[in-house]
């Protein structure tokens, strides 16, 4: 179901978030629509390379290892993302190569919504170079991430805000 872009959630004490196209993060009501949405709170998990075939690298760790050459946005910026913003994340991907069983790629993710615990749900906006096209890990899938994963940010515009309203090819659960 689609709702109003930018309607504020009625909150139970933690920082208010914004709903894009009716996609809420827990069973709360949008002020402009009397609709309840499914909760992600109890089932959200980080991607795992053994389970999912890929995982996210810690961008803060890369920055600590090389602060002069590996710059990342300030923590406050990484914690204040809005639907439609684009973020760059580092993905570790399992591949079928006995010499190098994992590839590392930097890819853009479109922010869809904020999740409890300070994370986000987004949509992969790139096609991975290291793997062939598939339904499990390709552009358009939904994935969770947290501020420590983010290595770059591009501010939203009308186009990316519209794209954040689109249904993902595959939901994260």
Automatic annotation (TrEMBL):
Source taxon at top rank: Bacteria
Protein name: DUF2314 domain-containing protein
UniProt source species: Sphingomonas bisphenolicum
């Amino acid at each position: 179901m689609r709702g109003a872009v930018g309607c504020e959630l009625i909150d139970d004490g933690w920082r208010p978030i914004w709903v894009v196209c009716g996609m809420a993060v827990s069973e709360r009501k949008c002020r402009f629509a009397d609709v309840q949405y499914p909760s992600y709170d109890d089932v959200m998990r980080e991607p795992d390379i053994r389970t999912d075939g890929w995982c996210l690298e810690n961008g803060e760790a890369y920055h600590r290892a090389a602060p002069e050459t590996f710059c990342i946005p300030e923590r406050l910026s990484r914690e204040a993302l809005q639907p439609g913003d684009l973020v760059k994340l580092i993905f570790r991907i399992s591949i079928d190569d006995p010499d190098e069983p994992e590839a590392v790629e930097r890819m853009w993710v479109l922010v869809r919504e904020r999740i409890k615990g300070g994370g986000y749900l987004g949509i992969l906006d790139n096609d991975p170079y290291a793997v062939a096209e598939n339904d499990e890990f390709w552009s358009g899938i939904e994935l969770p991430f947290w501020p420590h994963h983010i290595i770059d940010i591009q501010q939203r515009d009308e186009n990316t805000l519209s794209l954040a309203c689109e249904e993902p090819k595959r939901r994260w659960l």
